[in-house]
Specification:
With 201 residues, the chain is of the alpha/beta class. The protein has five helices and seven strands, in the order E-H-E-H-E-H-E-E-E-E-H-H. It starts with 6 loop residues before the first strand and ends with a helix.
């Protein structure tokens, strides 16, 4: 039987996000919302990444307590922040063009809004909350920096990756391997801080 260092419920059913967490959390048991039978929509109406992470974490923590499921909850909120757009799309990254999760439309809107801009610098930000049964929590943040390309480059499967040129690995996230991207990504950096906290405790 496989030994796990800890059991966590990831407050997400986003396939790309789940893949990244499982890649970077090898040795830990990561369950998704589907795995624990949580199918409700969570209304993320906070005005910051942290506020939305806390909404998700508290909602899932209460559900696990009701169901008698013992696990810590990991919730994250993240997004693309473009300097010339006053930080947009930010917390609205998943629904920037209107409908939730329409990555192609979201990318097109960002590219259209930057057509006449000379400053294309941007960063991804991620805020992770790890919450326990008593709703005590820790917060871990990560950022990665780059600029918005003028067209899509590489893999178009995950959010804004194919229009984000990382100045840290000198390539589009759409062309980067999982290892390259995870080494500098906003989520990767937040997860590393979380993993370090787990080791220390």
């Amino acid at each position: 039987m496989k030994e796990y260092k800890g059991r966590f419920v990831l407050a997400s059913n986003n396939k790309g996000k789940i893949k990244e967490f499982k890649e970077m959390f090898e040795g830990y048991e990561i369950l998704t919302l589907n795995d624990v039978g949580f199918y409700d929509d969570i209304v993320e109406d906070g005005d910051t990444f942290l506020a939305n992470s806390l909404i998700k974490a508290r909602t899932v923590t209460k559900y696990l307590k009701e169901k008698g499921i013992k696990a810590s909850v990991i919730a994250d909120d993240s997004g693309l922040c473009v300097n010339a757009l006053d930080g947009r799309p930010g917390i609205y990254s998943a629904r920037y063009a209107g409908g939730h999760g329409n990555d192609e439309a979201n990318r097109k809107k960002v590219l259209d809004e930057l057509k006449d801009k000379t400053d294309r610098t941007a960063y991804f930000e991620c805020v992770i909350v790890k919450m326990e049964e008593d709703e005590s929590y820790e917060v871990f943040e990560g950022k990665t920096f780059g600029e918005i390309s003028k067209e899509e480059v590489g893999n178009r499967d995950f959010c804004f990756d194919c229009i984000f040129y990382s100045t840290e690995i000198n390539k589009s996230f759409g062309l980067a391997s999982s290892e390259d991207k995870n080494s500098v990504s906003h989520r990767g950096r937040a997860i590393e801080k979380l993993k370090q906290s787990l080791k220390n405790n």
